[in-house]
Amino acid sequence: MITEHWPLFGLRLFTPRLELRVPSLDDLGQLAGVAATGVHDPDRQPFVVPWTDGSPAERARGTLQWHWGQWSAWSPAKWSIGLVTVLDGRVIGTQEMDARNFGVLREVGTGSWLGREFHGRGYGTEMRAAVLDLAFTGLGAEQATSEAFDDNAASYAVSRKLGYADDGIARHVVRGRAATGRRLRLDRAGWEAARTVEVRIEGLEPCLPMFGV
């Protein structure tokens, strides 16, 4: 079985409503379809790399290529795990977590998106809570970071709910214009104090060497 050689395919995270997992090819096909239908208001661009500005076909293809690229580039010193978010058997979005030199720094970053029809239902909070539990409980992380543009109120609401604190700003060029990103940071004490979402992790132990733990 492929999990003997790539144990990440056996990793599962469960919240009260969602399952997060490393996608199969069928999962990726569903995720590409969600990307094609749109993941945000076209008048706004919440991503530093404006991959959603392409056509539906380009968004779908880019989604596949991004995940395949992360698989091929994986090493314990630099990794990015992209999980599909599954609701009642249906892929509705993706939650990513990445790190460099995790074995020394014990720090992760996160990013995510959902199909537009699934916004505003609290799924973003559960998704982020799931990977934070993977980071802090499963991998022994000490810090987690996030960033969002000034106008991304929904992302800030999730971060505040989960215990993040302000950590400065970053300047970017998006669609040819300057944009200010607000950085946020979560330490273990803040995570423990704000922890409210129940998370269950399965299949982690054989994956630990891949994370540099």
UniProtKB/TrEMBL annotation:
Single GO molecular function: protein N-terminal-serine acetyltransferase activity
Pfam families tied to this protein: Acetyltransf_3
Is-annotated flag, keyword Iron? no
Q: Which Gene3D superfamilies match?
A: 3.40.630.30
Identify the domain of life.
Answer: Bacteria
**What keywords are annotated for this sequence in UniProt?**
Transferase
Annotated N-acetyltransferase domain ranges read: 18-187
GO CC field: cytoplasm
Which InterPro entries does this chain map to? Answer: Acyl_CoA_acyltransferase, GNAT_dom, Ribosomal_N-acetyltransferase
- Stretches that traverse the bilayer: none
Which PANTHER family has this protein been placed in? Answer: RIBOSOMAL-PROTEIN-SERINE ACETYLTRANSFERASE
The name on file for this protein is: GCN5-like N-acetyltransferase
Q: Which organism is it from?
A: Actinoplanes friuliensis DSM 7358
